[in-house]
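Appendix B, Record 12. Input sequence as logged:
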Amino acid sequence: MTNVRIWDLPTRLFHWTLALCVAALVITGNIGGEAMVWHFRFGFAVLALLLFRLVWGFCGGRWSRWSQLPIHPTSLLTYLRSSPAPLQAGHSPLGSLSVLALLLMLLFQVASGLISDDEIATAGPFVPWVSSALSAMATHWHTSTGKSILLLLIALHLAAIWYYRRFKKQALTQAMLLGDQRLSGSHPPSRDDARSRGLALFLFCICAGLVFALSQMAP
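Logged structural output:
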């Protein structure tokens, strides 16, 4: 067993910053009132993070790339039939599907929040750009259906981490904190040097700038 750099620093910072922003979104959304100002700010922050992760999936460290996610049905069936399930570098097939589901749901939540309107005191910045029918559908999704699905996915994600820690003795959170994963055999590490981190910072600044420009377009 050797330590292999799986998660580069930009991926780890994205993961934990996104987790904090999502927690803040849930809290501010439940509080309502003046807290909704921060709810929208955290929503824009999540959008910037998601855009960055989308781009980083093409040029980031090896195991952070979309091409490395084992989401092919054959990989999933092989993984499910293995007993015990093998320890893999990066995300397992189930973990890969979980990650994609969470990211897509967050994107849908952010998009729907931008055009949601509770018709009382809070409205998304782009409500004037859409029809009242579409805004009503988005509001129902954002505050009810989408929110419930997202919370369920988060609960399943946390339950899976606990299961792997308790029964498989695999510290998934430690790998995402420190970057290294203990693996047997030979696995190429992710690139995680000053040059790649500088590229990540540059890309995130572009994504954040695009989101800021979008926020300023609101009527």
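The mean pLDDT is 90.
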